[in-house]
Amino acid sequence: PPSLNDQIELVKSDDLMVKQIGIDFCCNQISTLTKECNILGFHFSTLNLENSLLAILTRSGLLRTFNDPSDLSSLPSKFSASNTNSTLPVGGESATWDEYPNSRWGDARSPAFFNESIYGQSSFINTDQLLQWGFPKSLDDINTLFSKYISGDIPSLPWTSDNINSSNSDFVISVLNYLPKVGIWPMASQLAVDGAQSSDPEFGWGPANGYVYQRSFIEFFAIEPVALKILEHLKNNTKQDFSYYASKLNFDTNEPSILSNAVVNNASFDPSINSHLLEIESTALSWGVFPSSPVIQSALIDKLNFGYWSKEAIQLWRVWASQIGSFSKESKQFIDSVADSVYLINIVANDYKTPEKLFCFLREEF
Fold first, then answer.
1. How far is 288 from 294, CA to CA, in rounded Å?
2. What is the distance between the alpha carbons of residues 167 and 191, in angstroms, rounded to a whole number?
3. % of the chain with per-residue pLDDT over 70
4. Phi/psi zone of residue 240: left (φ > 0), alpha (ψ -120 to 50 degrees), beta?
5. How many CB atoms lie within 10 A of CB 190?
6. What distance lies between CA 351 and its chain's CA centroid?
7. How confident is the model at residue 243 (pLDDT cuts 50, 70, 90)?
8. 210 pLDDT exceeds 70?
9. pLDDT-based confidence at residue 353 (cuts at 50, 70, 90)
10. Which of 81, 225, 250, 314 would be 257's cystine partner, CB 3.0–4.6 Å?
11. Residues 6+ apart with CB under 8 A from 46
């Protein structure tokens, strides 16, 4: 509803306030449906997030508390479950679920993290988008497509509809515009921030009177010769100025193979493995310090979340190819060939006090 949207717009950078508005709205809905429509039962989807749902159940009166076990005898049931222990704690100290997943930049070990086909673009591409992106038949055509996206001539790509230039400096924007000319195809970037106030209109987020920080990073595609050159430069950087993650499809397993200088050997993005038990090196991308609160990490990258995303990102080349085939078989064949050799690379600058260092490195080396 427009009224709800207006409320959220005013506090959209403060997760706690957004959550409170949602709780209030949901409780009002329950009250209206109960009183006016005589509806007594409600279905909730938790999305593995506990505390907000617990607050709604408690405030709305849907969660009844029985102090005396004999109270339960007044509840009719067709089934006998008297021998079942149903006194497991709800909420309070047991509420340890994450409150907010942060898209693909969240902790992949969290129960709230969706590991596939949630954080990327839709697997369906409409005709208007296909016509907008054209029918590439060469690497130069792909270079031109990404140049148009970065300059704002087109609003989206098969992998993203975010504005890559938001909150970037003029120098960083100039580097982003340059990179497609040398076969580096950026999709996302971020400029470092060192202690901006949480109320800052450009970089701020979270509760009032806090300070926020973030590292510079860039994420891009590159075909194999370009990718190998980039990785060689990164491996020769002995000062550990940058953390990197690189992925390429392994034809034997149909899974991405990950190269990185920032992970431990036993990290895995295999959904069959209980990732909660793994020790995973994570690189913080954004974090904040707020009154009466521990440090809050709002975005990170590690082998797990990068592995999930890289699999989907490479698959989206195939999706694009399959849907462009009805317009141009030559374009389909070309895009499929790119998917066979393309790398997805994410580079993070570890020193958040030198915001443009990463982009200077890319401009100087290429």
1. 9
2. 7
3. 77
4. left
5. 25
6. 22
7. very high
8. yes
9. very high
10. 250
11. 53
List, for residues 278-297, the tens digit of each pLDDT value.
445 788 999 999 999 899 88
Mean pLDDT confidence for 209-235: 95
Edge-to-edge strand ranges of the sheet holding 217-222? 184-190, 217-222, 343-349, 242-250, 255-260
* Least confident interval from 21-35, 179-193, 246-260: 246-260
Distance CA 345, CA 163 (A): 19
DSSP string, 74-92: GS--SS--TTS------SG
Inter-residue contact 79 to 143 (CB < 8 Å): no
Per-residue confidence at 52, pLDDT binned at 50, 70, 90? confident
State the alpha helices, DSSP H only, in the chain: 2-11, 15-37, 51-60, 127-133, 139-151, 170-178, 224-235, 303-324, 329-341, 357-365
Q: Where are the domains of the chain?
A: 2-64, 127-264+279-365
Long-range contacts made by residues 29-38, C-beta under 8 angstroms, separation at least 24?
A: 30/56, 30/60, 30/62, 31/60
In one-letter notation, the amino acid at residue 32 is T
Mean pLDDT of 241-266: 81
pTM: 0.74
CA dist., res. 320 & res. 339, Å (int): 10
Closest C-alpha among 284, 142, 163, 164 to residue 219: 164
Q: How many CA atoms lie within 13 A of 106 on its CB side?
A: 18
Nearest to 245 by CA among 289, 309, 320: 309
Give the tokens for residue 131.
Answer: 């016509």
Report in angstroms the alpha-carbon separations of 257 from 23, 246, 308, 314.
Answer: 42, 8, 11, 12
Return the pLDDT at 64.
65
